[in-house]
Target: U1 small nuclear ribonucleoprotein 70 kDa
Amino acid sequence: MTQFLPPNLLALFAPRDPIPYLPPLEKLPHEKHHNRPYCGIAPYIREFEDPRDAPPPTRAETREERMERKRREKIERRQQEVETELKMWDPHNDPNAQGDAFKTLFVARVNYDTTESKLRREFEVYGPIKRIHMVYSKRSGKPRGYAFIEYEHERDMHSAYKHADGKKIDGRRVLVDVERGRTVKGWRPRRLGGGLGGTRRGGADVNIRHSGRDDTSRYDERDRDRDRERERRERSRERDKERERRRSRSRDRRRRSRSRDKEERRRSRERSKDKDRERKRRSSRSRERARRERERKEELRGGGGGGDMAEPSEAGDAPPDDGPPGELGPDGPDGPEEKGRDRDRERRRSHRSERERRRDRDRDRDREHKRGERGGERGRDEARGGGGGGQDNGLEGLGNESRDMYMEPEGGDGYLAPENGYLMEAAPE
Model:
């Protein structure tokens, strides 16, 4: 069938080429021995340079030293720039400084979102304004947070300088001062190392915050007054706190005393109630004991001393009535064990008397029932035999009323005797 396949399919069944023969290697690479053995560095010592010809070692700069060096370089660069700008600075020839310097008001610490119209509305209350100049950054064009306001009259500027300092505009309190560049000789702005807008006078231990518009020489007296006022306020607050603590302690003591008195009254009431209940309980127990004793004596007295109605109680059952419970008797105090024995003894006596009465009633009922049965049998015998001597007439089981009914003479010849029910003859007249 393979002869009918096309050539491309027959090529799939064609055998591969035979593997070429390669001569075997004498030794593998890891089996070959090195011609030069390992050695130390002794042969190479002569190649090193002489230590006397070596350059001296250099010391590397640490990170702290590098930062300190850069800071010093920056300060020196800034000082050079300030000196250069200070030589060129002349406020009287500044093209931006226009108008009368004695009518111009300096406003600093202004919110960056505050507009010129908002400043005009806030400062027009002190007088008519001639011009407002807001300072912007030359590079970014954003406001720098201060402006110059020129009034038409000098008295309006003085009024604003006196009353507008610390005024809150758009959430920030502004700093108001006069224009010192053209009015104060030797004054320099803060960017050139001067100015009065700082808020620190020294290190962290003597820092004092102030508005920044007044001369620093006048702060000593103001600081002393401020310290005195602060100490006075602190002393007054301490006195108020101490007074409040005393009041709170006195209120607490009164409250605790009232609570103690109330608790003591409540406890006394409870003790009195407990005493009343105990007194009532003892009186009720004594009355109950006396009542049971009377009932027991009446039962013994009504029983006739030895009949079937009641039996004499054993000696020692009745507790001696020596006084109210709780008091000392001849045998000792009436303790809880003695009370329990008395209660058990009274309970047994009451149960025994009840059982005796029930037993007597059952005995009487059985006796009456037996008598009724015997009387019925005798009546039936007499009715059959015409009545003979020695027969029971059935009156044995009848009551007193029935016996009285049969006591009448029967036909004048005789009567029935109530003792034994026999027919007795009448006595001769």
Summary: The first helix runs from residue 7 to 10.
